[in-house]
Amino acid sequence: MRKIITNSTPVIGLSMIGKLSLLNELFDEVYVPEAVYNEIVNGRSNRKYGKEELKGLIEEGSFSLVQIKNKQLVDTLYGKLHEGELETIVGAKELGLQNVLLDEQAARSFAKTFLLRPIGTVGILLLAKKKGKVERIQPLLDELIANGIFLSKSLYKQVLFEAKEI
What is the domain extent for residue 78? Predict the structure, then answer.
């Protein structure tokens, strides 16, 4: 059974391109820490991406909201990473998960020190292509970039090469 816990940036990014549902298609269970939910749904950001979609997925039970037990660890580590990233990593350990959905490099590196397997938004798109859930990745990457998501040129080319689109 494949399970994953996610940080906010991938939820927002996948929502931007209308592909948040891929998480349910690729994983049996999707967990969202409270800090991530609050950042997206109750946050002060002008971005609307993910807000209503995430609320709906939690309400219908497609995604599960998770309350982190070891808040003290999150508070102790706060500053190294954002609260949502920390709750994603700590939540994975508490739930016995291996897969964490994180985009920021510092968070991904930190997750590896906890012996977790980080995957990012682009990795989800690659996985979806391999599983036949999306036909092409390039238009999705272009849409992310057009909406202000940074992807280095080298990552962009590498992903298209892996997806056999160049």
Answer: 3-121
CA distance 138 to 149: 14
CA 156 – CA 72 distance, rounded (Å):
38
Strand partners, 3: 29
What is the residue-level pLDDT of the chain in tens, covering all 166 positions?
Answer: 799 999 999 999 999 999 999 999 999 999 999 999 999 998 866 667 999 999 999 999 999 999 999 999 998 888 889 999 999 999 999 999 999 999 999 999 999 999 999 999 999 999 999 999 999 999 999 999 999 999 999 999 999 999 999 8
Look up the CATH number of the domain holding residue 72. 3.40.50.1010
Q: For residue 63, is it within any domain?
A: yes
Torsion of CA 3, 39, 118, 22, to 10 degrees: 50
Dihedrals phi, psi of 164, to nearest 5 degrees: 60, 40
pTM (2 decimals)? 0.94
* 61 assigned to some structural domain: yes
| 93 inside domain | yes
Among 103, 99, 71, 98, which Cα is nearest to 86's? 71
Listed in sequence order, the residues at least 6 apart from 78 whose beta carbon sits closer than 8 Å to its beta carbon are: 86
